[in-house]
UniProtKB/TrEMBL annotation:
Higher taxonomy: Eukaryota, Viridiplantae, Streptophyta, Embryophyta, Tracheophyta
Biological source species: Zea mays (Maize)
Statement: the UniProt record of this protein carries the keyword Nucleotide-binding: no
Protein name in UniProt: Cysteine desulfurase 1, chloroplastic
Record-linked Pfam families: Aminotran_5
PANTHER family per record: CYSTEINE DESULFURASE (PTHR43586), CYSTEINE DESULFURASE 1, CHLOROPLASTIC (PTHR43586:SF8)
Protein origin, superkingdom: Eukaryota
Magnesium in keyword set: no
Length: 334
């Protein structure tokens, strides 16, 4: 596993100088954070070589077009799209959601219509629809959390009516790590004639996603974002006074390889800073662009550790050991 992860990491030249990707060498700061952003070399080279080409009828133009369409076909195959023409490339998932909101939303929604979202959505999936709501007069309806702190699917089902025009939901929460039953949500939404937009940024890179099976009208994902998820969760439980948000992994509950957590009487930003400065381990702290969710959870911020496919069990062990040392260091000073 470690050898495979190291080999994969070599494909990301942008991560050179930051060690394993989860644990950094020496004290080179800000090398890796909660989201991997380094471009794989196989993708960076053709982008660089084609970036200066102009729109004229030369062979190089046709090569660029073929390369672009070939990339579209590869993505279509990866998510099992019915046709490569269903794939639309944007700069990032935020732009993709904005594209749906400002093209479809502004053109199709009106006063009296309803947009259903959950409180666990990323800001990028909330703010565009707030704007659309203001412009069109459509109403936003937010699905809350259950006592297990996961989106209340029964409440979502109860919200659906002939007034519902679009349902905006995540596949996997970027804070809770929990998964929503997209196929069921699509079925319920279709019964009332509503569209479904799925934020799959946390699922497509980590698990098989079949867009035909899911059946959503719009699905957005990013190329920069499972086995270690359960190990990370269980290892974190060994840290004194830890609270992990989201459901515990089990035979029936699938959880993404990320954990948002807090330590009693220790601020998450302090945890992230000391992990970075003293242990060269980088995690994220704050509300992770999910402020409504944090407010619903009754907290201002959390710490978050996220894994990618090139991380290893040893790195999780290093992180947890460093976290325990960090908590000891901080509690001695509070």
């Amino acid at each position: 596993m470690a050898a495979t992860a190291a080999a994969l990491r070599c494909c990301f030249p942008g991560s050179s100088g930051v060690g394993s990707g989860f644990v950094k060498p020496n004290s080179s700061r800000r090398g890796w954070c909660a989201a991997a952003v380094a471009a794989p070399s196989r993708e960076a080279e053709p982008v660089s070589s084609l970036g200066h080409r102009t729109r004229v009828d030369f062979p190089i133009l046709h090569q660029a077009t073929h390369a672009y369409e070939d990339a579209r076909r590869k993505v279509a195959n990866f998510v099992n799209a019915a046709d490569s023409r269903e794939i639309v490339f944007t700069r990032n998932a935020t732009e993709a959601i904005n594209l749906v909101a400002y093209s479809w939303g502004l053109s199709n929604l009106k006063e009296g219509d309803e947009i259903v979202l959950t409180v666990a959505e990323h800001h990028s999936a909330i703010v565009p629809w707030q704007f659309v709501s203001q412009k069109t007069g459509a109403t936003l309806k937010y699905v809350g959390l259950t006592k297990e702190n996961v989106p209340d699917i029964e409440q979502l089902k109860g919200f659906l009516s002939n007034k519902t025009k679009i349902v905006v939901v995540h596949h996997v929460s970027n804070v809770l790590g929990s998964m929503l039953p997209i196929e069921e949500i699509v079925t319920w939404s279709n019964r009332v004639g509503a569209k479904v937009l799925v934020d799959a940024c946390q699922s497509v890179p980590h698990m098989p996603v079949d867009v035909q099976k899911l059946g959503a009208d719009f699905l957005v994902a990013s190329s920069h974002k499972k086995e270690l998820g359960t190990y990370l969760y269980e290892s974190l439980l060994s840290v004194p006074n830890v609270q992990i948000y989201g459901p515990a992994p089990s035979q029936t509950v699938h959880r993404a390889p990320l954990c948002s957590f807090n330590i009693e009487n220790v601020h998450p930003t302090d945890i992230a800073e000391i992990l970075d400065l003293q242990h060269s381990v980088a995690i994220r702290s704050g509300h992770h662009c999910a402020q409504i969710l944090h407010r619903t959870l009754g907290i201002n911020a959390s710490a978050r550790a996220s894994l990618h496919f090139y991380n290893t069990k040893d790195e999780v062990d290093t992180f947890v050991d460093a976290l325990k040392a960090t908590v000891d260091f901080l509690t001695d000073r509070y």
